[in-house]
């Protein structure tokens, strides 16, 4: 059975079995909010303090930690982890097995391919006195390829693309393509110089 008692659900939401909502609810963390027509698939865990817009979809066994804010029409794929204190915009698609750490910011119309890993700790378990988590910033329309790795604090510019398997160690300028290990940015091909859009979604005028 799904535990939906500690959540605020919009109209026509579907919550499958073995879902946990509102984990860690307290005086500081209110029950999670999920907008209209959301679909939360089995095995998903959503902590308290999470706010999700309309038409959300999770795959199976997704984990969304506290103080995460998610916009409208967002898809989060099976076994992906959103580790809390994350901002996600509208029309974002996150594929299977993606890891998104705390203090990450993701804009609108962003695509993140399967098994991509974002990080927020430049020196793991070192220099703890000066430790400050800084996740990547993905600007509107960015696309991240499968198995790509983004180091802490890097900024992926508007419309930029990161190739599959790339390791991004520095900022990627808007409308460029980053490939390789470490990734090197080159101008984005003209044929790819357009904003991301879901299948069947109407293209916006220039």
Largest beta-sheet characterization: 8 strands, parallel
Q: What share of the residues does DSSP label as strand, in percent?
A: 25-35%
Percent in helix: under 10%
Number of helices: 0
The first-to-last residue Cα distance is 48 Å
The coarse overall form would be globular
Number of DSSP-assigned strands: 26
- Helix-strand makeup class: mainly beta
Overall mean confidence score, pLDDT: 92
Q: Low-confidence runs (pLDDT<50, min 5 residues)? A: 202-206
Query: In order across it, which strands form the biggest sheet?
Result: 1-4-7-10-13-16-19-22
Radius of gyration: 17 Å
What is this entry, summarized?
With 206 residues, this protein is mainly beta. It is 0% helix and 29% strand. An 8-stranded parallel β-sheet has the order 1-4-7-10-13-16-19-22, with no helix packed on it. Strands 8-11-14-17-20-23-25-26 form an 8-stranded mixed β-sheet, with no helix packed on it. A 5-stranded parallel β-sheet has the order 3-6-9-12-15, with no helix packed on it.
């Amino acid at each position: 059975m799904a535990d939906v008692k500690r959540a605020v659900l919009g109209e026509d939401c579907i919550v499958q079995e073995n879902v946990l909502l509102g984990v860690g609810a307290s005086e500081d963390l209110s029950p999670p909010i999920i907008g209209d027509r959301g679909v939360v698939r089995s095995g998903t865990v959503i902590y308290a303090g999470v706010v999700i817009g309309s038409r959300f979809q999770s795959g199976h066994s997704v984990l969304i930690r506290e103080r995460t804010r998610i916009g409208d029409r967002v898809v989060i794929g099976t076994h992906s982890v959103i580790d809390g204190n994350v901002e996600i915009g509208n029309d974002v698609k996150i594929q299977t097995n993606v890891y998104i750490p705390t203090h990450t910011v993701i804009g609108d119309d962003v695509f993140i391919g399967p098994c991509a890993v974002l990080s927020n700790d430049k020196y793991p378990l070192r220099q703890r006195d000066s430790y400050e988590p800084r996740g990547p910033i993905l600007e509107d329309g960015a696309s991240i390829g499968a198995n790509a790795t983004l180091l802490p604090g890097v900024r992926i510019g508007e419309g930029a693309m990161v190739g599959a398997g790339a390791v991004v160690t520095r900022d990627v300028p808007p409308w460029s393509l980053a490939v390789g290990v470490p990734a090197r940015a080159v101008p984005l091909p003209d044929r790819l110089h357009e904003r991301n859009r879901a299948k069947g979604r109407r293209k916006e005028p220039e």
